[in-house]
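As a warm-up, study this chain.
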Amino acid sequence: MYLIVGLGNPGPKYAGHRHNVGFRVVARLAEKAGAPEAKAKFKGLYTRATIAGRDVVLLLPQTFMNLSGESVRPAMDFFQVAPEDVVVVHDELDLPFGEVRIKVGGGLAGHNGLRSIAQHLGTQDFLRLRFGIGRPQSGAVVPYVLGDFSKDERAVLDDHLDRAVAVLETLIAEGPEHAMQVHHTKEKPR
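Now compare it with the structure written out below.
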């Protein structure tokens, strides 16, 4: 069983922010899978679904980003999910806007949500689905990640969210290594 965690900050004030793209991807996956309405538990909202014949738990922590581990750990323990079967969907400054990559373990890249999860799990060996938001061309990072997507980004955001869902579906069905082989391949120039 996978525990799929979308990172973000709760409340309508933050809904459109780049930092909340993890929420959006997991909510879209839940909708596509026909998951029941989410319930409040584990300091978050969770639901269950069957995707590619596998049971999955979908979780949106409601603790604010920097405390995400306070939601993930109790859900992981309750459903008896191993750290290597936790998939955290989050925004990634170090990828161009819309690029989606899977990462197995590794560093935290200064992401406070990942840091909180690693602290509560006692390991960094969990899966990540990194959704590229790019870096600001000028100015500070915090207002950028806590800002809404630009008009041009919003025009294509749905396509990128759908692609992220497809990557998650492949990961659930075939495992992370297969999903990386299929979705990380770049087309060769003609």
